[in-house]
Amino acid sequence: MGIKIKVKSGLKPEFAAILMGNHRSYADVLFILSGTPTVFLSKAEIKKWPIIYQAAQALDTVFVQRNDKESRSNARKDLAKSISRGLSPVVFPEGTTSYSGLLDFNPGMFYTAAQMQVPIVPFVIEYSDPEMAWVGKEKFIPHLLRMFMRPKWHVDLTIGDAFSGDNGEKLSKDVHAWMQRNLSNG
Fold first, then answer.
1. CATH 1.10.10.10 fits 4-182, yes or no
2. Burial 54-72 (b: 16+ CB within 10 A, else e)
3. pTM of model > 0.90
4. What string of DSSP letters covers 48-91?
5. Would you list the domain boundaries of the chain?
6. For 115-157, how does the pLDDT look when each residue is reduced to its tens digit (9 = 90+)?
């Protein structure tokens, strides 16, 4: 699609970690630390979306019914198994997309990271044109066509150092603060 990915700072991890970042679009998964063995966490509603669901399956995705406590617990267990196999789960703790800024985090994976003593490597993804974000009720195909038609835009990726600890609440606050500081429009 002619989209350039610019790593502003940081390096992709060479160890299994939970990769956590802000969320702008379904396209984010294309830009996340390519070459790092990953597994994605996605809302179960994706299963009803043609094309995106097939792509999610190809990317080794764990699906979660966000309003179901048992589903959330099972998803965390599946991601923990992935970590033990050397994969790095990619989690968007905001749980949805936004044009800019940072939303509140869903806390589950921070507690899983603390319990398992798995580091969290935060990242911030920003589109040079915020209109390329997929937010709200825009349909998939019109958005995809708009992305293809846009002559030039790029993605900035900032990767942080790993956060570790045994306190999920503190990890959540620390990672949120890091992301907030590293968003240019934060």
1. no
2. eebeeeebbbbeeeeeeeb
3. no
4. GSTTHHHHHHHTTEEEE-TT-HHHHHHHHHHHHHHHHTT-EEEE
5. 4-182
6. 989 999 999 999 887 777 777 777 777 877 877 777 777 888 8
